[in-house]
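hey m, so remember when u said the tokens were messed up on ur end? i reran from scratch. heres the input so u can diff it against urs
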Amino acid sequence: MATMPRARTMPDLLAELAARFPEREALVGNDQRFSFRTLREEVRTIARGLAALGVRKGDKVAILMGNRPEWVVADFAICSLGAVMVGVNTWASARELEYILAHSDASVLITTGRFLKYDYLAMLGAMQPCAERLPLLREIVLVGEPGGESTDKPAYVANLAIPGCRPYASLRELAASTSQQVLEAAEGTVDKDDLAYLLYTSGSTALPKGVQLQHYALIENMWQIGERQHTTERDRLWLAVSMFWGLACENALFNLYTHGGCVVLQEHFDAGEALEIIERERCTMFYGTPNMGQALYEHPDRARRDLRSLRGGATIGTPEQMMRVVALGAHEICNIYGLTETYGNCNVSDASEPLELRFRSVGRPLDGVIQRIVDPVTGFERPIGEVGEIRVKGYVTNGYFKDPERTAESFDEQGFFKTGDLG
């Protein structure tokens, strides 16, 4: 019988995985492959490079890129230093990008030069003078070629009014100037209650909200999610859902890593490529939205692809939408409910339950989660069978960054988080 990891922090979790499954494949993407041992080695190297740049406990370091292995490596490296990973929407407008970098107090940005149609260097180049508009941002670390095929992009690098706009590979060189003892000391200061993530979600407001998430709950709640999905160390998850989204960097990533499974990244969703990846990598788990499931189901290549490895995972939608995912082979697919603020999911159906039950129910609350269905005006509990607002206690954000008023408004007198959703 599987047991929950002993670790309650991200660096400890990676160390535990490397000790338990050193040669088991942990991460695949962009022609890169890591075992848990080599993943930890790469994370610790990049962490030492970031330490050489001056990243310290409590600092905010932003990530802006598609689903590349560098996203996961940087994520764990940042949090291994006791710093806070700021996930930035890959589809952010220039205005939203500037707001998130400024509001989060990000001191370092790790990014690709561009992603699909988005030219991040052009956006950053337009934020002049950076010293005034983003006074805390002191370093930009570029993953991959800064300008793609365009010859004018390096000019944006030269014009950035901040010291240093360096290639990601330079972090490995900088690591030589930081000893293992410095890294180990930093890892030793990370506490389970420390802030690990700052994820921005727009909700119904004009400006994004910074959701604060702690180390211990990323591990404990995701373990429970994986238990409902019957995740094991033999599972391989296809992941094209954007990493900045809670469904990916909270839910999917730690579901697999609390169980010793492998994450197979697709940099951005393309149905034909996804079918090829699932077949080639023998992926067992689907994590995706209804439109992803429909695109895979309707793609002309589906009939010639061997998808027999698929068994389960997580999605949402109508019974008809979920049935398309089952038709791909994921017969143990689980229906889910949750928000970024509730550490991805607070409800997950059980993979062993009948399909018709999983289609019409998001399942019971996870262990460690308490729920109430209340009248949204009075706060009184609604009788069984009647609709009301879903309120959640347990694995819930400890508040919104630099927004005590909105934090106070989001919790009732009993400490339950007001989701605003009906159930």
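this time it looks ok to me. The first strand starts at residue 25 and ends at 29. if urs says something different then somethings off w ur setup not the seq
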